[in-house]
Design the sequence.
């Protein structure tokens, strides 16, 4: 029995069909019998190797003594949460924009915010603000304007772009309603910040002046963590605006459009990685790879007319990383994708 390891693991989904293929320079003899689902046979031989596409084939009802080994130690985990998931008894109906601080004990990417309210009409906005000396400061992420659920209960809304936070970092979860349906709360610390602004001001780039009181709300966020090997789809869309890191300084970008779908595979990877996108750029693209602390460790310029690159991350430590593509001329964010290095 002859075994051969792939140069890099291949990820497959539940229900997905793949074809195991083999070719010999001089076939020593492969065992088989009659059976289904049968085999495909190319007209090509050793000189063609394993081309990018299998090509034309003939099919016959024979099965061969061929198998693969696999493992399933990587899985997409359920999102983790941080905040107050208890439904408190008191109800607040003030329309002011408010925020509640949370401190993370691990590196994380915040996906969504959830608020328990009494149900109503109109729209809502959730946001995430940075912390400056115990005060909500710069806007890191925001949801789309979303209709308020008519019935009481938890309402979860995803951020338009995930927010990266470091271990020990404090952020403020913020919310504002067009017409507040009633948000559950109780007395407690670390308390909340309240702006004098209401719905008409939305989620501005800075939270602004606030008053503080010792109340806590039925508000929490969901996130995924590098420590827990969380992962998201290997295919992701371009984003509207973003929060990114320039060396060690967080920067908030203005809202802007990006129109690209990027595929990163295999993900997770043991080293070899392919990044491809739909369209050929007329200008150079800047690719930056960040570690999970938001610090760049690899930059590469991709010339015009290219829509696929191959990377070797075999010398990179296992963990979670971010690959970012930007138009060099405009600075426009084309795409940000998360990868797992095993």
Sequence:
């Amino acid at each position: 029995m002859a075994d051969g390891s792939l140069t890099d693991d291949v990820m497959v989904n539940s229900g997905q069909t793949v074809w195991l293929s083999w070719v010999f320079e001089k076939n020593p003899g492969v065992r088989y019998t009659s059976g289904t689902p049968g085999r495909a046979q190319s007209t090509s031989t050793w000189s063609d190797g394993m081309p990018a596409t299998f090509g034309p084939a003939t099919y016959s009802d024979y099965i061969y003594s061929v198998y693969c080994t696999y493992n399933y130690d990587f899985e997409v985990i359920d999102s983790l949460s941080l905040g107050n998931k208890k439904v408190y008894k008191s109800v607040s109906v003030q329309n002011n924009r408010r925020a509640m601080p949370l401190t993370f004990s691990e590196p994380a990417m915040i996906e969504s915010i959830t608020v328990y309210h009494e149900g109503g009409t109109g729209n809502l906005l959730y946001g995430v603000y940075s912390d400056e000396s115990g005060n909500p400061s710069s806007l890191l992420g925001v949801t789309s304007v979303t209709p308020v659920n008519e019935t009481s209960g938890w309402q979860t809304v995803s951020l338009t772009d995930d927010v990266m936070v470091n271990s020990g970092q404090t952020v403020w979860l913020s919310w504002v309603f067009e017409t507040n349906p009633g948000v559950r709360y109780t007395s407690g610390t670390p308390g909340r910040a309240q702006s004098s602004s209401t719905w008409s001001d939305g989620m501005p780039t800075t939270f602004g002046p606030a008053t503080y009181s010792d109340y806590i709300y039925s508000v929490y966020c969901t996130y995924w963590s590098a420590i827990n090997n969380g992962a998201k789809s290997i295919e992701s869309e371009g984003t509207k605006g973003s929060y990114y890191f320039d060396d060690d300084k967080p920067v908030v970008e203005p809202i802007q459009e990006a129109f690209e779908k990027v595929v990163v595979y295999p993900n997770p990877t043991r080293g070899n990685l392919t990044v491809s996108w739909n369209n050929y750029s007329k200008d150079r693209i800047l690719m930056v790879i960040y570690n999970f602390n938001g610090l760049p460790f690899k930059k590469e310029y991709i010339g015009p007319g290219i829509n696929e690159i191959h990377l070797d991350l075999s010398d990179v430590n296992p963990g979670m990383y971010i690959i970012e593509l930007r138009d060099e001329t405009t600075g426009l964010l084309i795409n940000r994708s998360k990868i797992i290095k095993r």
